[in-house]
Amino acid sequence: MKALVLSGGLGTRLRPITHTSAKQLVPVANKAVLHYGLESIAAAGITEVGVVVGDTAAEIEDAVGDGSKFGLDVTYILQEKPLGLAHAVMIARDWLGDDDFVMYLGDNFVVGGITDLVDEFRRCRPDAQILLTRVSDPRAFGVAELDANGQVVGLEEKPERPKSDLALVGVYFFTPAIHEAVRAIRPSWRGELEITHAIQYLIDTRAEVRSTVVQGYWKDTGNVTDMLEVNRTVLEGMVRRIDGEVDEASQAIGRVVVAEGARIVNSRIVGPVVIGSGTVVSDSYVGPFTSVAENCRITDSELEFSIVLRDSSIQGVGRIESSLIGRHVEVTPAPCVPSAHRLILGDHSKVQIRS
Predict the structure, then answer these.
(1) Residue 124: left (phi > 0), alpha (psi -120 to 50), or beta?
(2) What is the distance between the alpha carbons of residues 82 and 136, in angstroms, rounded to a whole number?
(3) Domain containing 270 — which CATH number?
(4) Worst-scoring range by mean pLDDT, 181-185, 222-226, 293-297, 301-305?
(5) Residue 352: exposed, middle, or buried by beta-carbon count in 10 A (0-12, 13-18, 19+)?
(6) pLDDT in tens, 239-266
(7) What is the CB neighbour count within 10 angstroms for residue 330?
(8) What is the dihedral sign for C-alpha 22, 24, 29, 30?
(9) Mean pLDDT for the chain?
(10) pLDDT at 64 > cutoff 80
(11) What is the pLDDT of residues 144-179, one digit of tens each?
């Protein structure tokens, strides 16, 4: 069995971060989302992985390498344009051969991994197995319709009027039967070859399509709100570890990880928090559910429920919360300027100004 990991796409919902960085490499608890997925694949006993890449190919390849650090053998497959998940399967046809495979979206996060799901698929071996989860607004996802017996009877991609609240999780299992399906469909109104259409083709041709409702935690980390929520979830499972320096004037309370080479000076850190190597936190407060990456500077500031990427500095700005701050960012106080109103008013105007 192989794994096909999708790491292309433009990441428009995470802009401006993704103008300069692949969305799959935005860190959660100081580790790239993509790395969690690769670790889950390795833990499930799968070693051959094809990584589909696009415009950010060089960055993905630099972060993953040949896969050996994850115990994997990685092959890169270029998708020149983001033309849909089914298109990714189509261009990976030669590499996939006649093997069964799991398709894993590189910006998805599944707590607990996929080992049990892989074992179930290997044991039952349907033509396709999809994962579903209940969501509050299914219009943003592929949506499944089940019959009274729990069988999948229909799939829709981002429907205006969803027939259920069951959204497809970004992990799919396929036998080689999917290859005929992706060749048989046509592009959607979005101009993409939708994997939902390919699975619908399997349903319509009476292939066996099974579904599993995920009871654990899953997130598509495609926007800032979900990214911060995933960060919170991962941090909650951390174990306290102080490898760096915390001076006598500082407090590190609860599940706090201070990496080797990091320094905490005259500051209060309330976990769960992770502080990366080479980072210096001085005269500051860092509160729960915050990840600060390596080589950052936090000075005379307060930070909570946020993610700060590497080589950034926050100095003297009071309190920041619920924020995602990119690489090489400088956050400083605005200069003091006189408070005044500038008016251009026509004849007979009446203006009320609150002083």
Answers:
(1) alpha
(2) 27
(3) 2.160.10.10
(4) 222-226
(5) exposed
(6) 999 999 999 999 999 999 999 999 999 9
(7) 10
(8) negative
(9) 88
(10) yes
(11) 888 877 788 888 888 888 888 888 888 999 999 999
Q: Are strands 290-292 and 273-275 parallel, antiparallel or unpaired?
A: parallel
Q: At what angle do helices 177-184 and 195-204 cross, to 10 degrees?
A: 110
Domain match, 59 and 157 both:
yes
Query: How much is the pTM?
Result: 0.83
Beginning with the edge strand found earlier in the chain, give each strand of the sheet holding 324-325 in spatial order.
241-242, 256-258, 273-275, 290-292, 307-308, 324-325
| 108 shares its domain with 252 | no
Query: Residue 129: CB partners within 8 Å, gap ≥ 6?
Result: 117, 120, 121, 172, 173, 174, 209, 210, 211, 212
Query: How far is Cα 153 from Cα 109, in angstroms, rounded to an integer?
Result: 26
- Tokens read off for 152: 């999948």
In a shared domain, residues 327 and 189: no
Q: In a 3-state reduction of DSSP, which class is residue 7?
A: strand
Under 8 Å between Cβ of 323 and 17: no
> Does 341 fall in a domain?
no
pLDDT digits (tens, 9 = 90+) for 67-96: 999 999 999 999 988 889 999 999 999 999
Alpha carbon distance 8, 212 (integer Å): 26
- CA quadruple 56, 62, 63, 69: dihedral positive or negative? positive
Residue span of the structural domain in which 285 resides: 239-331
The residue-averaged pLDDT of 28-36 equals 91
Tens-digit pLDDT profile for residues 286-312: 999 999 999 999 999 999 999 999 999
Q: Is 27 exposed, middle or buried (0-12, 13-18, 19+ CB in 10 A)?
A: buried
Instruction: Confirm whether 159 is domain-assigned.
Output: yes
Alpha carbons within 13 angstroms on the beta-carbon side of residue 186 total: 1
Q: Which residues contact 81 (CB under 8 A, 6 or more apart)?
A: 54
Report helix, strand or coil for 18: helix
The strand ranges marked E within 123-272 are 128-134, 142-146, 152-157, 166-174, 209-213, 218-220, 241-242, 245-246, 251-253, 256-258, 263-265, 268-270
